[in-house]
Amino acid sequence: MGDASKEVLTAIKDGHYAAKQIYCKDRMIAWSHRRRFETGLQLAARFRGQRILDYGCGDGTFLALLLASPDAPGSAVGAELDDVQVHDCRARLGALPGVAFELIANLDRPEHAGAYDGIVCMEVLEHVVNVDAIVDRLWRLLADRGTLLVSVPVETGVPLVIKQSARRIAGWRRLGDYDTTSRYTWRELAAGVVAGRGQHIRRPVYEGTAGPPYHDHKGFNWRALADRISRRFAIESIVASPIRWLGPSLATQVWFVAHKRPV
């Protein structure tokens, strides 16, 4: 991340999510998010010179860092749900060479079908209510020999207890949005710690003000998501973050590296 130009770093710092994540005042939270981005940049190095899509690009932080890296893609599209985020990304990052920002709804146009050598979907699918529909869309957008990179948080096992404790403390300190994080009952927390591949508790659904209904992190199970992704993609590997060698069971996030299954 240190190789990015000063102009790009300035634009990134003005991003809404960057302020809460990689530039969070809490050093542990910032470190964890930075490691997630660093892992993603390493995995996305395979897209050098290719055309990629950042699906659910947020404030464009990852895309900007990738475009400023030695392994920059040839061209890139960042997609988001609403005009506000798209316009913000265009205003701050639109001058970067080879980048465009679009509404997710526009991705259903014929010119986007199979158009991307690589797709990055970072910290999105844990919030999606109708996961299968989004997985199907990602399958349509990816080129036949392309690669899908998906990052999601680990909200089960020992990491769940650690993260809920950290969120509670961050909420008390008024850092990020942690003061609004859904709480667990003791029974729900126990179910999360021992969760397997199936959905272990009922997940709350919230109504979006500018988009579809969504989940927060409560009850998310990365193993269950892996099964949903596997309907359409062959998962090549699962990479843990922030420390790879700890493995997914002790990670705070995981990355899926996947390829399209034939029809």
Low-confidence stretches: none
Number of H/I helices: 9
The CATH class name reads Alpha Beta
- The overall average pLDDT, rounded, is 90
CATH architecture classification: 3-Layer(aba) Sandwich
Sequence of strands across the biggest β-sheet: 3-2-1-4-5-7-6
Structural description of this entry:
The radius of gyration is 18 Å and the shape is globular. It has one domain: Rossmann fold (3-Layer(aba) Sandwich). Strand 2, helix 5 and strand 3 (99-103) form a beta-alpha-beta unit. The protein has 263 residues and is α/β, with parallel strands linked by helices. Helices cover 35% and strands 20% of the residues. The chain has a seven-stranded mixed sheet, sandwiched between helices. It has nine helices and seven strands, in the order H-H-H-E-H-E-H-E-E-H-E-H-H-H-E-E.
Reconstruct the topology from this structure:
Elements: H1 6-13, H2 16-20, H3 27-44, E1 51-55, H4 61-67, E2 75-80, H5 83-93, E3 99-103, E4 116-122, H6 131-141, E5 142-153, H7 157-172, H8 186-193, H9 222-229, E6 233-241, E7 253-260
Parallel strand pairs: 1-2, 1-4, 2-3, 4-5
Antiparallel strand pairs: 5-7, 6-7
